[in-house]
Amino acid sequence: MLRESVTRHLAVDQFVARELIFVDIEGEEIILSGAVPSYFQKQMAQHAVRRVAGGYRIRNALKVVSG
User: Fold this and answer.
1) Confidence at 66, pLDDT banded by 50, 70, 90
2) Which residues, 6+ apart, have CB-to-CB distance to 1 below 8 Å?
3) Is pLDDT at 46 greater than 90 in this prediction?
4) Has residue 67 got a pLDDT over 70?
5) Is the pLDDT score of 10 beyond 70?
6) Which member of 15, 19, 20, 41 has the greatest number of CB atoms within 10 A?
7) Where are the domains of the chain?
8) How far is CA 60 from CA 16, 18, 20, in A?
9) Considering Cα of 36, then 38, then 43, then 47, what sign does the dihedral take?
10) By percentage, how much of the chain surpasses pLDDT 70?
11) Dist. CA 24–CA 37, nearest whole Å
């Protein structure tokens, strides 16, 4: 359920390219992986997840790729 909530928050955030982001939950950690086109989107994805993370840690493993 947490994974779905995180995915939903990413989907509605206008600053995040959601189709390139994958969400996994391992223990008490939310892991973001995949690729985004800018550092701004990487930070905005983490910010969107923080709203629903509760006591979970966030590991932002997103790669920034251009083009």
Assistant:
1) confident
2) none
3) yes
4) no
5) yes
6) 41
7) 2-64
8) 13, 14, 13
9) negative
10) 99
11) 20
Q: Which amino acid is at 17?
A: A
CB 65 within 8 A of CB 37: yes
Q: Which tokens belong to 24?
A: 């996994």
Q: For tokens 């391992």, what's the residue? A: 26
> Would the pTM count as exceeding 0.85?
yes
Residue 58: pLDDT band with limits 50, 70, 90: very high
Task: Give how far the C-alpha of residue 47 lies from the chain's centroid of Cα atoms, to the nearest Å.
Answer: 8
CATH class held by domain 2-64: alpha beta
Alpha-carbon distance of 38 to 1, in angstroms, equals: 28
